[in-house]
Amino acid sequence: MSLKLGPAGVPLSCKGRTIVEGMDDITALGLEAMEIQTVRPVQPKHFDQYWQAGILSWDSGIEMNLHGPYYAELLGNRRERNRSLAKMEASMQAGKIINARHLVYHVGPYGEYDPGTEANEQVANIFSGIVERVRSIWGEQDEDAYTAFPWISEQEPSLVGIETSGRQELWGTVEEVLEVCNHVEGTVPVLNLGHIHARGHGSMRTSEDYAELFDMVRETYGGSKFYCHFAGIEHRMGNALHYTQIKKSDLKFEPFAEFLAEEGDWMDITIISDSPLLEHDAMYMMQHYDKARQRLMEIRARDERRIKLAKESGLTPEELELLEQEVAEAKVREEKEESKASTATAKAPSKMMSFDSPEDDDDLF
Amino acid sequence: MEGPPRLISLGEPGGSDNASAVASTALDMGVPSIIVTSKHGEAFETFDHGAVDWKKLMETAHWMVNCSSLVNLGKSPAMAWSASMTFAELEGCRNVMVVDMPGDQETISKTWGLVVGKMRQIHVLFFTSEAMKAVSLLENMEEDDFLSQVRAKTMVPIVCGIISGGSAVSVSHAMGSFEVDITEHGTGIVWLAGFLKSLPYSGTGISGIRNASSW
Question: How large is the average pLDDT for residues B127-137?
Fold first, then answer.
């Protein structure tokens, strides 16, 4: 299994504020991915910074990803749509320079559409155009560009990620995102687990909930590569209200960590922390994942020992388990009897003189 | 000053910025407040921001007030601005951001971009009327619907701003929007200080916000 964790932006604890300085901090923390927000308007100095980050990511293996504008209105009228696409263009250009593996976009409100096929078709049409544009950006360079951007010739163009939304009025349920991603090559679902949890009225509670979600994605979309966002979230009536740190939310990371440790062997997953405590929560997730793996390893080691013991004593593992159960039950019974006996003894009136009499409160010692 | 601080702000030494104005007004209203700034004789642009013990300051504080124009004043204020919000988030202190016009008005795009990067940490976003005009233009949003749109798009719990030429404040929250007349308070900053004073004790839901806003 491959799990990459990282913050959505330059780490908060980073002394510098540039992306490259942020990447240094990420490496020092043992994280392996980063998602950066496109600044607007993009100026030449930003491109210089992006290129340096691209080179560093190429050399160090840190997975770089880019988030498009913080909101969009792709299902709005022509003016709104074009305005959103114009904002997205900068991130598409930056994606090539920074060697972004994913470009993440929101769709925005349903606008004049009702949820359903028509809206999904419109989103699919828009995203085919975006994928085409990304590919043309990656394709349009002269020979010198190959030296400056070695990843262009050796890597695939950035994948276009469509993010699930956290509010009922915004396009982007898991089903909608999967349907569009299924129809448009070059797109990938971006599972924002905080949003999914909020939109599902707090649906992500146990490791089984995660198993169901990822099974659904695997069955509908296929593949083993996943790109997710995780943060604490406050929600009400199926709508995300605002992001919080993971510890303060009812969306816990432990069940997700448990699912990843137990059933995630087949997955290649990147989890971006978009909590207000960016890298702190990314580290928190890493610790919980490590703990879950440790726990699982202990369980497996115990099971292996049981099998070994069973073989040695000529029993089947099932017989040994039954035997262990009987011994455990007997022990419990024994303990209960012992505690009953000791209670009875304590209650029996003692004939001995006691110094613990309640009246004896003038004892200085 | 006796007792623990309940409101902290990061501000210039002279106190001419909006964050300091909120803190000093709140102090006049009886809210224990502290303005974090450079030491006497130290330039604010290059002050030793690493020496500020945010954790200790925020132990009992409820609000951390910042204003957007401070980020343009130098590397040190920008670092302190960012650090204060992160420590506030860690220590359970709520962040308030006053979005105002920077000295160099051309840099509003950069300033707003920096505020957007911090949105997840902000609990109350307050726009001055000039900043509201400039940012709505920048974002191609109608001014009438600007605050609700910003709230919906950024998920900041409370977004408010000065409207009607300074005589009212519009407040947008997940459960609705409303306007409050502030002529009796004089300025939006005074209203904000009173709002922050009342909000923690005004009850839950939209009625709590309404009660606090008409303090």
Answer: 93
What tens digit of pLDDT does each residue of B199-212 get?
A: 988 887 888 899 99
Q: Which of A324-334 are b and which e, b meaning 16 or more Cβ less than 10 Å from the residue's Cβ?
A: eeeeeeeeeee
Put simply, the answer to whether B119 touches A70 (Cβ < 8 Å) is: yes
Q: First-to-last CA distance in chain A?
A: 65
Is B13 buried (19+), middle (13-18) or exposed (0-12) by CB count in 10 A? middle
- Residue-wise over A40-77: b if at least 16 C-beta within 10 A, else e? bebeeebeebbbbbbbbbbeeebbbbbbbbbbbbbbbe
A80-102 pLDDT tens trace: 899 899 889 988 989 988 999 99
Residue of B nearest to A244 (CA): B120
Q: Mark out chain A residues that contact chain B at CB-CB < 8 A.
A: 9, 12-13, 15, 17, 37, 39-41, 70-71, 83, 166-167, 231, 236, 239-243, 245, 274-277, 280
Helix or strand or coil: residue A249? coil
> Smallest CA–CA separation between A119 and chain B, in Å?
20
B82 touches A: beta carbon within 8 Å = yes
The pLDDT of A19-41, averaged and rounded, is 88
Which residue among B78, B117, B157 places its CB closest to the CB of A242?
B157
Helix (H), strand (E) at residue A209 = helix A207-220
The complex scores an ipTM of: 0.76
pTM (predicted TM-score):
0.82
Instruction: Identify the closest residue of chain B to A15 by CA–CA distance.
Output: B79
Lookup: tokens for A129 = 């155009």
Where are any strands of DSSP class E within chain A? 2-7, 33-37, 63-67, 100-105, 159-163, 187-192, 225-230, 232-236, 239-244, 268-273
Contact A216, A167 (CB under 8 A): no
Could you tell me the end-to-end alpha-carbon distance of chain B, in angstroms, rounded to an integer? 25
Q: Nearest by CB to A245, which of B89, B116, B154?
A: B89
Interior angle at CA B7, CA B6 and CA B12, nearest 5: 150
Q: What is the mean pLDDT of chain B?
A: 89
Contacts of B90 in chain A (CB under 8 A): 245, 277, 280
Q: Which two tokens stand for residue A61?
A: 């293996």
CA quadruple A160, A228, B116, B48: dihedral, nearest 10: -120
Of A11, A131, A17, A15, the residue nearest A62 (C-alpha): A11
CA-based Rg of chain B, rounded to a whole angstrom?
16
Residue type, A67: H
Q: Out of A12, A70, A245, whose CB is closest to B153?
A: A70
A362 band by pLDDT with thresholds 50, 70 and 90: very low
pLDDT in tens, A207-229: 999 999 999 999 999 888 899 99
